[in-house]
Amino acid sequence: MRWYSHETIASRQFLCLDYARLPTPKSRGFELNTTQTALKDPYQLEAADIAEPPRALLDIFRRIGPGIILAASIVGSGELIATTTLGAQVGYTAMWVIVLSCLIKPVVQAELGRYTIATGETGLAGFNLVPGPRWKVNWIVWAWAAMTLMTQLQIGAMFGGVSQVMHQLVPAVAVNMWVLVFLGITLALLLGGGYARIEGLAMIKVGLFTLLTFLAAVVLTRMPQYFNWADVWQGFNLRLPGEGLSTAVAVFGITGVGASELFMYPYWCVEKGYARYAGKRDRSPEWRVRAQGWIRVMHIDILSSMVIYTVATIAFYLLGAGILHGMGKVPAAKDMISVLSNIYTQTLGPWSLWVFYLGAIATLYGTIFAATAANSRVYADMFRLMGFFDHTDYAARVRYRRAFVLFLTIFPVCLFMLVQSPVKMVVAGGVAQSLMLPIIGIGTLYLRHRHLPGEVLPPGWVTAALWGATGVILLLMGYYTVLTLQ
User: Fold this and answer.
1) What are the helix (H) ranges across 170-284?
2) In the chain, helix, strand, coil percent, each to 5?
3) Mean pLDDT score of the chain, rounded to an integer?
4) CATH says 54-485 is which class?
5) Where do the H-state alpha helices sit in 242-352?
6) Mean pLDDT, rounded, for 418-441
7) What b/e readout covers 220-239, taking b as 16+ CB neighbours within 10 angstroms?
8) What is the C-alpha separation between 363 and 367, in angstroms, rounded?
9) Out of 70-84, 388-402, 420-434, 456-470, which region has the weakest mean confidence (pLDDT)?
């Protein structure tokens, strides 16, 4: 068998197989039958994969994708459930939390992406370099593993949420039975598809519900009984709401780029090909230009996704603060979907109930899909760092990833069966993510100052912004900790 680099399809499939000698693979990504074909390892930097970065803006937009997958993960339980619930609880008071959450964390995300493109290392491998206690891997890696187990409460909540929608549509089938149906669908999709499938489904999901929710928010601004611009501006007074404090902290952790997504993003950058296209660092001027070019593509990718999820997040919050808070309704365990549906039916009309149901299914299930796909990759990488398989053994990486797909779908389903309260599950997972954010910021600063290649160092204002973002995160989380202990 021979491998050929093929730039035309590099951003989607990374390779071109010699079809005259091999059976046609059924998968468009890397999930090929290992008994029939070899596996192309997207985590290895090979000279044949080097490609010049696009220069024209339109060409750059054709090469984005990791941020879209992240947006698919972001515009899910955080926005539809947690953000809307926070608005329902406190009105417009926490508007500043929403905006700050969306705008501040991409600075950290971009520097993690820069590190991955410049070094070819995964995000977890980078954080594993941070000094401190370690057993096989260091304390940050273990903290990520613990946080991700907590975020399975959120995934379980989404299984419950999407199943509640289906129960509304087909009452004869119980919620728990729908949970099992979606469990089976998730396993079939994730065990049989690679990056290209995940990216394609993410684009469809993000575009659908974001547009509809934005439209509902625009209609809301024309409803004086629920909306007033003066109340919105009052939401920027930098006050933490007392009643909904835990929800506000959870929202800060999971809206915009949450702690989980910050760990995920470098892996999607690797599988999209940004690091491989730049090639191994050889300190040459050519490498520096290529690396800077692909970092520029990565920045456009981050900016595009930030616009999408910021618009969606603000729209969800306005609808929760305007419609639900105005009606005196807060989503709870059994009536979560019926209460949330008011954000559409009260703005777009009763006809939009079915549109909301379809959008909720796409939003919640898309997040299950994207988050599980990413977390299974990071867990597999953790086991690589612990020495369970060699870094060049991609077949072993795929086996571990598939094993974690099984665990990361079955475990959250079990959690939902036990707790049966999507709102509380989302809040618990969000608080865990929030508490992880300061660690991510500190780790990113360490990588920036100690391990980032000098050829791709960011401008001074970017480094200052990274310090500022980390400082704000530390301040907010420290303040929340003090209030909680009092």
Assistant:
1) 175-191, 195-220, 229-234, 245-254, 259-272, 274-278
2) 70, 0, 25
3) 83
4) mainly alpha
5) 245-254, 259-272, 274-278, 285-319, 325-327, 336-340, 342-345
6) 82
7) beeeeebbeeebbeebeeee
8) 6
9) 70-84
DSSP letter string, 409-443:
HHHHHHHHHHH--HHHHHHHHHHHHHHHHHHHHHH
Decide if 51 contacts 10 (C-beta within 8 A). Answer: yes
Q: Residue 5: name the closest of 290, 388, 277, 344 by CA.
A: 277
* CA–CA dist 287, 50 (Å, integer): 10
Express each pLDDT in 116-156 by its tens digit. Answer: 999 999 999 999 999 999 999 999 999 999 999 988 988 88
Confidence class for position 15, pLDDT limits 50, 70, 90: very low
pLDDT at 360: 78
Between CA 313 and CA 210 the distance in angstroms is 9
User: Quick one: which H or E segment has residue 147?
Assistant: helix 139-169
Distance CA 431, CA 157 (A): 15
* pTM for the whole structure: 0.83
CA–CA distance, 28 with 441 (Å, rounded to integer): 36
Rounded Cα distance, 179 and 20, in Å? 43
The Cα–Cα gap between 358 and 364 comes to 10
- Domains of the chain: which residue ranges? 1-40, 54-485
The per-residue pLDDT for range 108-118, each reduced to its tens digit, is 999 999 999 99
**Tokens 């059994």 sit at which residue?**
334
